[in-house]
């Protein structure tokens, strides 16, 4: 059960090896992995690059809680998550989630649940750079009081 | 008596403050007080952060009405899109 | 969209590369993979090894139909399946399924659906070798008329 | 008039016939007839294959009452566990 941040490109082969290193040998019948890859468009806008900013101390703490909860919720041998930080180019992997279990149902469910929990709970912010306008923090609300601060004297 | 608090800023809060981190002397008793002081006082606008944001004290999630102590590190957490 | 049989060990890295080679560059936001690995036990019995026998011509035809159907059913960029044949040791991968899609929901659903369809429809038979008794064809019914033939003069 | 059919055997059918493949001269009109001839005649037991097995003619799935032609390849498909 583990969660890691990485400021260098994720390698799917290395991520998978880390997952299997945490699983008891011979017990895992099913391995499900998810890779989230930087796409060239989002909501119809052309994306040129991304930045991920993590509140690292809390991200690691919350990430470890999530992988621990996954083990309690599902019959899994191991769950492993690696999340990128920093600047990402198109095609780079932003997040990798793997689950190994004796049975395939548990592996699918644990992988999906863990991915959704990471996205909902781990404090990592995504800034998209667009071809047609200024960069934006994805998912951030438009808050009048906040925005006005930027031009305060 | 004032307390000294350390702040790290991310996402829209970093943009609003124009810096990654800062330390402040404040009378704020709770994260809610501190939020109002930092982000709403200039305009008199209260963005009701408890409806759209979270807060961490000393690197763990905390309540908006938790009591702050001298030397605490506070981080406001805007919604994020994650992976 | 493709289905392949392999009589040599599956390499997850190579399988993933084949999936991505079939996906339009930059369009895939989510990649979900499944690996089915030979476990050391099945239904409470200790397993020593496995054999997979494929009716190759029909397996390839039905496998290609399944990956084609997956493309029709889900918003996926690519689906790729590789199934082992021959003798497998514990820990070897028996089947690899990968789906690449713009959105993660479609990638998860297509991977899971394809796996289930392959197991249900592709003519590949599994023979398990046990520590405590004779090998058996997994999933085969006990048919009196058939079994009796083995000892007919 | 008899026809010549080619068979490949897998799984329990291979075990029952003791070989991977064979050719037979037969009067069988359909896969169902052929199945009875190969697997049930010795005992008089009819395992009703259409309830638990499938059949392929010339490398594609076929109906149990399809008409067989001289030179066809027939494969009976036992249930399998797949991956």
Question: How would you describe this structure in keywords?
Answer:
heterotetramer, A: 153 residues, alpha+beta, five-stranded antiparallel sheet, four-stranded mixed sheet, elongated, disordered C terminus, B: 83 residues, five-stranded mixed sheet
3D structure, described in words:
The complex is a heterotetramer, with 2 copies of chain A (153 residues) and 2 copies of chain B (83 residues). Chain A is elongated and about 50 Å long. Helix content of chain A is 34%, strand content 37%. In chain A, a hairpin with a 2-residue loop joins strand 3 (41-42) and strand 4. Chain A has helices at residues 12-21, 56-73, 104-121, 144-149, and strands at 2-6, 30-37, 41-42, 45-54, 76-84, 86-89, 93-101, 124-130, 136-137. Chain A starts with a strand and ends with a helix. Chain A has 153 residues and is α+β, with helices and mostly antiparallel strands. Chain B has 83 residues and is α+β, with helices and mostly antiparallel strands. Helix content of chain B is 20%, strand content 29%. Chain B contains 2 helices and 5 strands, in the order βαβαβββ. In chain B, a hairpin with a 2-residue loop joins strand 3 and strand 4 (60-62). The longest helix of chain B has 10 residues, at 31-40. The radius of gyration of chain B is 12 Å and the shape is globular. The N and C termini of chain B lie far apart (43 Å). Chain A binds chain B through residues 36, 53, 55, 57-58, 61-62, 83, 94-95, 115, 118-120, 122-127, 137-141, 143-150, 152, and chain B through 8, 10-18, 39-40, 42-43, 45-47, 52, 56, 59-61, 75, 77-83.
> Could you state the order of secondary-structure elements of chain A as H and E?
EHEEEHEEEHEEH
Structural class label of chain B: alpha+beta
Care to count the β-strands of chain B?
Answer: 5
**What are the segments of chain B in which pLDDT stays under 50 over at least 5 consecutive residues?**
none
Binned, the helix content of chain B reads 10-25%
The share of residues in extended strands of chain B comes to 25-35%
